Amino acid sequence: MVGVVDISCEEVHDYQGVTIYRLAWTRSSKFRFYGNARTLNRKVNAIYAQQPIDILEANELGLAFVHKSLPFTKLIRMQGGHHFFAVTLGKKPAPWRPWQEKQSFKKADHLIAVSNFVGETTMHPLKTPTRNFTRIYNPVDKEAFHEASPEKLEQGNLLFVGTVCEKKGARKF
Hints:
Strand 6 (110-113), helix 4 and strand 7 (134-135) form a beta-alpha-beta unit. The protein has 4 helices and 7 strands. By secondary structure, the chain is an alpha/beta fold. A 7-stranded mixed beta sheet has the order 2-3-1-4-5-6-7, covered by helices on one side. The protein has one domain (3-140): Rossmann fold (3-Layer(aba) Sandwich), CATH 3.40.50.2000.
């Protein structure tokens, strides 16, 4: 495999012979989707002109404005997009995001999900035609962790790993 493109940040890595490009989304302007789409398509085409790309990987929204005609595999990694969290929190999804997610899913060649729950819950509300997804759990390197010394444990402390927000279970009081 020569190249995998992930559109979440601006980095280039070589991992066991696979070149991984991570392209950043812009966070500015009300119509950032347009700027992101232009930037993404331009960068992907520039990379592809230099070397083959095997896979374009994106989150649930990520393929919405990507040209369908790109000649490589397009993959969505479902890990809880806008529609998923709105539905699971009992909130009404913003009208624009589900539309983007539907467009993105139409362009995907393959779907993966971090769990069956995420995959099924994402697919159902979007009324996506019956499609199969592959479950690939987020990996954890168990060798990187060790059991804490009991004398160092402090009563009442909690470690929260991730974004501290309501959709992750951390409610504001």
